[in-house]
Amino acid sequence: MNSYTPSLKKIYLHDVLPNLIKNLRLKNIMEAPKIICVNLSMCLGDSVNDLKTLKKNKDCLEKICGQKVVITKVKKSISAFKIRANMFIGLKVTLRKNIMWEFLDRLINIALPRVKDFKGITSNFDSNGNITIGIKENLIFPELDYKDIDKVRGLNITISTSSRVDSQAKMLLMLIGIPLK
Length: 181
Description:
By secondary structure, the chain is of the alpha+beta class. It has helices at residues 7-23, 51-65, 97-111, 166-176, and strands at residues 35-43, 70-73, 88-95, 131-135, 155-161.
């Protein structure tokens, strides 16, 4: 049996969770908001159906998250954008459990401080307690080397919480250490 617990998960269980229960006046530990999953997605719009570029970016995203990446395809043909159905258009991956906690730890403590002129993440939550962070350069992750990539690309990171109220989700993410404005 694997008894390893990521450090950020330990912080959540021992420090953040009791703090949330006290501050939100919750009666049960199961009412406390928690992070369900983290989704990463990358669009390859300028190099549609270029298999070499697709493979390089797939390898880069797999290095960043440590998990197998899914290639997304176009569902419907759109002549204005010169794309046809079943063309490769992007990459996505969903992180859960220990891999999710490890990724968040690296994002908070290593990757985000490497962003030039970083002042915090704008707290634009959807109405369901989830937040999407847009990263302009994938080179902020130390797993990537400049020679491994063909072009500096951005990616979207969506953090999904169990909270249905944005203020509870914001409190959760701030207590974990995500630098929100």
